[in-house]
Amino acid sequence: MLTNRDIAELTDWRRELHRFPEVSRDEAGTAARVVAALAPLSPDQVLTGLGGHGVAAVFSSAAPGPTVLFRAELDALPIEEVSDAPHRSTIPGSGHLCGHDGHMALLLGLGRLIARRRPARGRVVLMFQPAEEDGSGAAAVVADPAFAAIKPDWAFSLHNMPGISFGRGLLKAGVVNCASQGLKITLGGKTAHASQPEAGTSPALALAALIDGFTHLAPPGPLRPGYRLVTVTHARLGEPAFGIAPGAAELWITLRTTEDAEMASLRAEAVALAEAQARLHGLTVAFEAHDDFAASVNDPEATARIAAALEALGMVHDDADLPMRASEDFGRFGQPGTRSAMLFLGAGTDFPALHNPDYDFPDSLIAPGVAIFHRIARDLLG
């Protein structure tokens, strides 16, 4: 188990990471801090540049056995932190407001325990993944040719959850996070003088119709199989001027489904709706996909491994509040041949929500998080 000195040092390291947040695909400094912190643990191998700035530390045994991967995320959010904490962000407009700094501290704590007592068989991979927040990181890591050498048989992850009692686990087999995709729709017409709007082609009516149409295409409802949701997140019409009738518009929407297969169908409906409005109003239309998240689906056997670890540690867990509407790119690790599962660990009921400007990972969650990961590793590898 971790010593008091371990916990103090991991807390200090977590707060250092918190002071220097880096957003998705820009985590070079964070990755360098991870590599430096891993060096005293003497892993058998350290891979860098995985899928961008990803770092993987490998701890091997002398006996054959499964490869067990534990993942944390490197990236922060493009949100200004509002805090009086001495370790608050020093980077304007960026903050570790989702707890990825804490997740990295958990993984480093696990590394300390594994380094002191190597697994009896197989190997442990500590995966510090880039770009979780925009959905691109896990896919890039898995697609990286270097990942093939550490492809896991088992993959586990953990996310802190404010609003849930401290230390309570949320866990279930099956879908735990929805698939989602951002869709940017650009409408093109022709500008005109505001005194003669009929001389141009305005996308205003099409934009208004699409906002209404998307709002009703898949409105909020119970989260059950076949669930679909379309959320209008941003709209822009023309230039901020009184003398110009608009000739262009943008509409950003987020598509969300419980199943990956349903995403293709929902996207096709959204595209068809936009194309119909463009034809009706004599406009061009173009589409760009962003923030593409697959559904996160917990493998039953991997879920059972997490449950056994929680029960051995005397920690309560249930499947209430699952699945979640929110997306998580960890599901990309659950490729053929890999059993993967994710745990959501309560950070406390009286706590700012994830992505709030005053959020800060609770350091008291480091020790129990490490204990869970370590128990899983020992149960699988001895």
UniProtKB/TrEMBL annotation:
Cofactor: Mn(2+)
Domain Peptidase M20 dimerisation intervals: 181-278
Keyword Metal-binding: yes
Gene3D superfamilies: 3.30.70.360, Zn peptidases
Residues that bind Mn(2+): 98, 100, 133, 159, 355
Keywords: Hydrolase, Manganese, Metal-binding
Domain of life, per lineage: Bacteria
GO molecular function, one term: metal ion binding
Cofactor comment: The Mn(2+) ion enhances activity.
Alphabetical list of InterPro entries matching this protein: Amidohydrolase, Bact_exopeptidase_dim_dom, Peptidase_M20, Peptidase_M20_dimer
Protein name: Amidohydrolase
Organism: Tabrizicola oligotrophica
Taxon lineage: Bacteria, Pseudomonadati, Pseudomonadota, Alphaproteobacteria, Rhodobacterales
